[in-house]
Amino acid sequence: MYNALIKGFSGENPIKGFEFYVRMLRANIVPDNLSFPFLVRACAQLEGIDMGIQAHCQIVKHGFENDVYVQNSLVYMYSMCGDIKAANEVFSRMLSPNVVSWTSIIAGFNKIGDVEMARELFDKMPERNLVTWSTMINGYAKNNCFEKAVELFQVLKDKGIKANETVMVSVISSYAHLGAIELGEKAHDYVVKNNLSLNVILGTALVDMYARCGSIEKAIKMFDEMPERDVLSWTALIAGLAMHGYAEKAIWFFSKMVNSGLKPRDITFTSLLSACSHGGLVEKGLELFESMKRDYGIEPRLEHYGCIVDLLGRAGKLAEAEKFVLEMPVKPNAPIWGALLGACRIHRNAEIAERVGNILIPLLPEHSGYYVLLSNIYARTNRWENVETMRQMMKEKGVKKPPGYSLIEVDGKVHNFKMGDKSHPEIEMIERKWDEILRKIRLAGYTGNTSDALFDIDEEEKENALHRHSEKLAIAYGIMRTKAPAPIRIVKNLRVCEDCHTATKLISKVFRRELIVRDRNRFHHFREGSCSCMDYW
Description:
Elements: H1 2-12, H2 14-26, H3 35-46, H4 49-61, H5 68-80, H6 84-93, H7 99-111, H8 115-124, H9 130-142, H10 146-158, H11 165-178, H12 181-193, H13 200-212, H14 216-225, H15 231-243, H16 247-259, H17 266-279, H18 282-296, H19 302-314, H20 318-326, H21 334-347, H22 350-363, H23 368-380, H24 384-397, E1 405-410, E2 413-418, H25 427-443, H26 459-466, H27 470-481, E3 488-492, H28 498-510, E4 515-518, E5 523-527, E6 530-531
Parallel strand pairs: 3-4
Antiparallel strand pairs: 1-2, 1-3, 4-5, 5-6
Helix pairs in contact: 1-2, 1-3, 2-3, 3-4, 3-5, 4-5, 5-6, 5-7, 6-7, 7-8, 7-9, 8-9, 9-10, 9-11, 10-11, 11-12, 11-13, 13-14, 13-15, 14-15, 15-16, 15-17, 16-17, 17-18, 17-19, 18-19, 19-20, 19-21, 20-21, 21-22, 21-23, 22-23, 23-24, 25-27
């Protein structure tokens, strides 16, 4: 009876499970090997390592430390609590670890980000079940190893193993991050053909995938087809619309969600305020921010304050944005100051930028983006002495700018381009194609804008560097290997620079191609010489 109660409470109310274990001991009832797995699982639910160690002591005291089921629960508990050393010690002492033991230790290494060790153990396993495959694929996805996640999914399919809904959520999320819509559509087909249940989590993953891959129309269609939706499903769609710059539509769907009886969460407002920021809807954004606590009892978090700073800053209300930051009831963090600095770049306000930089750089001295942003602001206002100071500070602190990369999917394969990287097998043809593109857009009025280039090289080098930015190589490859009317879809890890933005607008006009570019902040839909962001990003 006590075991049943410990088991019953171990999931939803773990503390209660402990209480019944203590009551069992006080009733002079000796626990058996079935008492401990669920007691230990309660510790894992709480991620309470101290309670877990006490439970482990009880296991040793009662002589069950060599029971395989109890050992499995200990490996799982230590793994979920992040103590991989303890988990590995228990695992290595097991005489006959089973598939559950292996899966738990693999999950533990994935949790701390050591996917290489997790994969090493996965490959050593004498036998695997679908949960093991799911754990490894999910581990790759959670640790941003998206290409490895989809490669392992392909291995699973090649072995004739049918994936379940959990596996497909990880795979579809990986395609979303890679911007691989063709592969994402194939995954959607796999779900349909294998009669997998289109539950809320899987349906939401598909909505997110289509939105992140640049097809907001398919995201809306998928959302409409979902048999059941929760607040996260609505939030995924609102976030997708925000990324694409459809602020009015995002607000419309938010109103529809509220009218359906669902209460928005804090993450819903983050997406909604982001939509207002990208759409320039200042008054509406401020109104929604005020309604958070007033109408829904949601206390604004730092992300929400950051959205308001971005909203005011992008609209050119820099003094108002600075005042808002200084009067915040919570201490502003680096991203909030960074949003204000980004607004200073858009509106070329070196005065406020300098004040912000003096606060921001000591907060995150290793963050290269803030040095580069501040240097570019100084360069645009011809404050070359300050540019040199920034360059020197970066040099002294060993700060380096992270390399930009761009992804493009062609015929179901994702190609990765980096500036200066010559590893692509067709790089010579790609560079020749870019030179041809460059000649044509120059005839249409293109002149290189070097203001966002590296600030410690001369103008000629800057121009050469700009012409080899990763998205330009990806666009050249897209024009080489795809045909109209198919859009060229690019995913970039950094913000699109002004020169690439200008060049891409002209490419869309000269070559009569639609280009959909996802950068760190939002989507840009380039058609016939203009961009959906209206040069407001």
